[in-house]
Amino acid sequence: MIKNDDRTKLLLAARNNAAWCDAVCRAHGLPTDLGEELWTSARRTPPFYPDAVTLDEAVGAPQLLRGIDTDSPGCSVKDSFAGLDLAGAGFEVLFDARWIHRPAGAAPAGHTSRLDWSAVTTAEELEAWEAAWDGEESGGLFRPALLTERFAFLAGRADGRIVAGAVANADAGVVGLSNLFAHDAGDTDAAWTGALAAIAARWPDLDVVGYETGDALYTALRHGFSAIGPLRIWLRTA
């Protein structure tokens, strides 16, 4: 049972995440529809991005499936309330996760980052950021059109080299934190601390939201987040 206060936060987190998915897909020239109950892309989305995000618990499978391409491989759905049953439409659960929320403010006392943090500002820096995030090279997933005031590709640098990073997305009255990475597992806490400090400097009055699973969820909780509700990612395999 989700508490009323957590439900409000969850709704904001889901809408923020849908807005980010919408921006990434539009940067690729895809037709999208962001409504009150549902976000969809009528054509296959880029890797790691869903074809639909539910924004209201009342959305059912038939309504959702009408707006997306279920015929070509890779169709996926972000079930923001973990309440849909898409097995009958050929989907399987890819993973379960938890929405997270953190009040506005700097990183918790006691956590520090040895890295120098700043936001990417050029297409060349964005390409370097994506290569660092990917671990190998930039595949053009994140387009320069995303370098706006609403979004920040945060880079943690050591000796001028990007070794950690995250994406911050200001929408729906909150900041979404996603795509957080650190090359050295020992720098994971430094990545969370640096990203949160950069967000607090840029948007000091906005709460931070996102979703995580596994070890990353426990790390987020250590850095002042609370788990506020479940979500589920479905992948069509039939």
Count of alpha and pi helical runs: 5
Average pLDDT reading: 93
What is the string of SSEs from the N terminus onward?
Answer: HEEEHEEEHEEEHEHE
- Structural class given helices, strands, pairing? alpha+beta
Biggest sheet overview: 11 strands, mixed
From the N-terminal CA to the C-terminal CA, the straight-line distance is 32 Å
Classify the beta-strand content into a percent band: 25-35%
- Assembly classification: single chain
Query: Which regions are unreliable across 5 or more consecutive residues at pLDDT < 50?
Result: none
Strand order of the largest sheet: 1-2-3-4-11-5-10-9-8-7-6
**Helix proportion of residues, in percent?**
25-40%
| Radius of gyration based on Cα positions | 17 Å
User: What is the 3D shape?
Assistant: globular
What is the β-strand count? 11
Description:
- The protein is α+β, with helices and mostly antiparallel strands.
- It has helices at 4-27, 61-66, 123-134, 188-202, 214-222, and strands at residues 32-34, 38-41, 52-54, 76-79, 91-102, 116-119, 151-158, 161-171, 174-182, 208-212, 226-236.
- Strands 1-2-3-4-11-5-10-9-8-7-6 form an eleven-stranded mixed sheet, with helices on both faces.
- The radius of gyration is 17 Å and the shape is globular.
- The model has no long low-confidence stretch (mean pLDDT 93).
Topology:
Blueprint: H1 4-27, E1 32-34, E2 38-41, E3 52-54, H2 61-66, E4 76-79, E5 91-102, E6 116-119, H3 123-134, E7 151-158, E8 161-171, E9 174-182, H4 188-202, E10 208-212, H5 214-222, E11 226-236
Parallel strand pairs: 3-4, 9-10
Antiparallel strand pairs: 1-2, 2-3, 4-11, 5-10, 5-11, 6-7, 7-8, 8-9
